């Protein structure tokens, strides 16, 4: 899961891309990067770390130009190496750089074809690099001296036909313009906004609508599944439905956890969706007769606040902030490695004993993935003096890996995949545990006036909308991306950097 942004403006875009990436920081904390086009000269800065750590005043002044793209990353495919920080770049044809949010399912086959048939050199294991080289190859084989919207859309069509998975792409072609694409199932989000600048229109694409707001752009619409957008450096706008949408199934976990509550995705309010999750969850608690002993409802900050507020309202009990969050600690879900996550929970949250002591506490969380965070929080609540601790999840049990850009690769690390609700309640130390049903979650997110009536629910249901995810593929990514494998990868990377500190340096 990553955040992407692209801007075509009449003035320098460095500051606005930086601001947008800051707003999208919740989508990735591993690395950040910006590329701009200064009259055909590529300007680049990328590095591991948070946005405000990667970019200094010195770097910002070097990022010249009125068109550019940016990226924040956390790795689901590839490694934590700086070599895989985005955007990526190839010099032929024209000079193309690209940033990407999501994951390809058929990366192995695609890489083989690019290397053995198309004779493209690939430097990393990243599927972003494969996407870039595929797009560049398709542009090049048209053998035209100048770029046209038609050639962009032909190349985009080839990308859609050859790639399988969930992906949102923003690319910059030097001295030409900006390209944006969204996968034919619409799994990963991508929006476009506009802003008036005198007698011209400026354009911005981003993963979430909040990034548009931060830069003063108005939401125009979502880019449609299988659609490609081309904006020339002069501000001419072109769009084309390159392939017929296979489905229109955005990832429902965006609404559960990833997206900011003030975002609008495919015409649906994330905030309102989370309020409705709380309403449905409260109804289920009442139906089960579990509400009588609850003294207070407390959210696990921050994502579950909206849901918890509605649960408290419908149960007729107090809503209280029982945990204070340290804002300078990253989101534990997207931290690689179990040990880092364990350590981070204690650093991130501190209980308010006054709101917990001698009370039956109902904790509301957005979801339960690995279970370790929930267990530690319940331990903190009991240590603060809670008489009983109940736990409710605004999402159903996460039982299956997500292969479209979310770091849930290993079934063995998903606590609900091998435990019953009763066993899981015992494991995390809750007096009782209740999950949202999948039907209620879908009903929470589905809006009558939206074009979207179905969602990618693969991490809950095991149904993969691309219809090409096999058990063999799931086993393969589990071996590659589980916590043990990531720790080995990280150890090797550090050893390499100690031996040759300049090997991954990018100025």
Description:
This protein has 507 residues and is of the alpha+beta class. It folds into two domains: 3-246, Glutamine Phosphoribosylpyrophosphate, subunit 1, domain 1, CATH 3.60.20.10; 272-449, Rossmann fold (3-Layer(aba) Sandwich). The protein has 18 helices and 22 strands. The chain has helices at 14-23, 51-54, 57-62, 107-116, 127-140, 149-162, 209-214, 253-258, 270-287, 305-315, 338-348, 353-356, 372-383, 421-428, 438-445, 458-461, 471-481, 483-499, and strands at residues 3-8, 31-38, 41-48, 67-73, 88-90, 96-104, 165-173, 177-182, 191-197, 200-206, 218-222, 227-232, 237-241, 264-265, 268-269, 296-299, 318-319, 323-325, 349-351, 360-365, 388-393, 432-435. Strands 3-2-4-1-10-9-11 form a seven-stranded antiparallel beta sheet. A six-stranded antiparallel beta sheet has the order 5-6-7-8-12-13. A five-stranded parallel beta sheet has the order 17-16-20-21-22, with helices on both faces.
């Amino acid at each position: 899961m990553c955040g992407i942004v692209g801007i075509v403006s009449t003035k320098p875009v460095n500051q606005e891309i930086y601001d947008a990436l800051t707003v999208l920081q919740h989508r990735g904390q591993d690395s950040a990067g910006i590329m701009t086009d200064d009259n055909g000269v590529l300007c680049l800065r990328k590095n591991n770390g948070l946005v405000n750590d990667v970019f200094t005043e010195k770097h910002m002044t070097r990022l010249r130009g009125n068109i550019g793209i940016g990226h924040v990353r956390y790795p689901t495919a590839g490694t934590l190496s700086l070599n895989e920080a985005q955007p990526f770049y190839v010099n032929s044809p024209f000079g193309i750089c690209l940033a990407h949010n999501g994951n390809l399912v058929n990366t192995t086959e695609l890489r083989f074809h690019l290397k053995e048939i198309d004779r493209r050199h690939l430097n990393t294991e990243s599927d972003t690099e494969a996407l870039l080289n595929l797009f560049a190859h398709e542009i090049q084989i048209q053998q035209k001296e100048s770029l046209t919207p038609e050639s962009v859309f032909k190349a985009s069509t080839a990308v859609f036909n050859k790639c399988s998975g969930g992906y949102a792409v923003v690319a910059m072609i030097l001295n030409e313009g900006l390209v944006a694409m969204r996968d034919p199932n619409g799994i990963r989000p991508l929006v476009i906004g506009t802003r008036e600048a005198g007698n011209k229109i400026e354009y911005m694409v981003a993963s979430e609508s909040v990034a548009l707001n931060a830069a003063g752009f108005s939401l125009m619409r979502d880019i449609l599944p299988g659609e490609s957008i081309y904006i020339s450096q002069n501000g001419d706008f072109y769009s084309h439905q390159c392939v017929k949408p296979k489905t229109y199934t955005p990832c429902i976990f965006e609404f559960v956890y990833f997206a900011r509550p003030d975002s609008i995705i495919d015409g649906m309010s994330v905030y309102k969706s989370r309020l409705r999750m709380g309403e449905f969850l409260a109804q289920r608690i009442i139906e089960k007769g579990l509400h009588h002993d609850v003294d207070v409802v407390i959210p696990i900050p921050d994502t579950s606040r909206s849901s918890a507020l509605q649960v408290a309202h419908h149960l007729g009990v107090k809503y209280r902030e029982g945990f204070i969050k340290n804002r300078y600690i990253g989101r534990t879900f997207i931290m690689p490695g179990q040990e880092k996550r364990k350590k981070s929970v204690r650093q991130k949250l501190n209980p308010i004993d006054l709101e917990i002591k001698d009370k039956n506490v109902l904790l509301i969380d957005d979801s339960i993935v690995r279970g370790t965070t929930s267990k530690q929080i319940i331990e903190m609540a009991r240590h603060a003096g809670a008489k009983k601790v109940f736990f409710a999840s605004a999402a159903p049990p996460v039982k299956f890996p997500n292969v479209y850009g979310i770091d849930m690769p290993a079934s063995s690390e998903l606590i609900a995949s091998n435990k019953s609700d009763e066993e899981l309640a015992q494991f995390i130390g809750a007096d009782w545990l209740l999950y949202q049903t999948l039907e209620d979650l879908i009903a929470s997110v589905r809006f009558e006036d939206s074009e979207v009536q179905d969602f990618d629910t693969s991490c809950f249901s095991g149904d993969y909308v691309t219809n090409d995810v096999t058990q063999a593929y799931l086993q393969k990514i589990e071996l590659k991306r589980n916590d043990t494998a990531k720790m080995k990868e990280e150890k090797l990377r550090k050893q390499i950097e100690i031996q040759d500190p300049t090997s991954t340096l990018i100025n």
